[in-house]
């Protein structure tokens, strides 16, 4: 979802604080107090590794990024733009596996079922999930649907199949649909609306040609569901975003055991990370994977909404098992 023009975030906030005599330290303390209840569970603190610009080797910025997948043990990535495009590129890492910059990146246009260009409401691509044998599942807002693409060489991909949205998704309008999309270990698609329904995020599961309810996640505060992934540990990870106008964004990462979600009652899950207000930009995409040492990592990407005052970022954390 495009979050609006008011996202001048930290730089303007610090300038404003200096003018009124509050100071950046005071604002930091205030922000920490607002989200004190959302601190990670004891012993579950995610470890920050790096934040780098989403800038390719040739200097081009990857704009409008709403989804991400990490491949080849962290050496390669797929990044989904919300303008019906997929970026395929490399990540340059240091000897500890920490990302330092992007390598070469290629852009691939996403087309419709008949190979047609996707404009405006048809081309608002938001969620990304990797399937088996090179299949890529992408959720769209505007004209709500999930489309399957087969990753191949070339500058354009045509959709191979489409799945209609689950119940309730279309109730929230063209810009509050399926931003969170994940593929379960059994091959089923899991998704939910960005906007909660009656204070819960209803999780929908698609398998054997039909949608069923897989569980529910309790809404907590102003957070909205914007990214999801199943980790190699079989748990569901949810990236959430709260938007506070000119103050910027707060991002949070929670995880859930599928067995707990199957119980029916809305789940709070385990909070792994909550950012400070304005620490990152508009984080929307999430990939959970294991590095060469077997440790869990979460890679998140921000959508700069094609605006010069926002930041396109790759943010990475090491997660507790």
TrEMBL record:
Organism for this UniProt entry: Phaeovulum vinaykumarii
InterPro entries: Phytase-like_dom, UCP031900, WD40/YVTN_repeat-like_dom_sf
Pfam families membership: Phytase-like (PF13449)
Gene3D superfamilies on file: YVTN repeat-like/Quinoprotein amine dehydrogenase
Domain Phytase-like: 61-306
Lineage, broadest ranks: Bacteria, Pseudomonadati, Pseudomonadota, Alphaproteobacteria, Rhodobacterales
Protein name (record): Phytase-like domain-containing protein
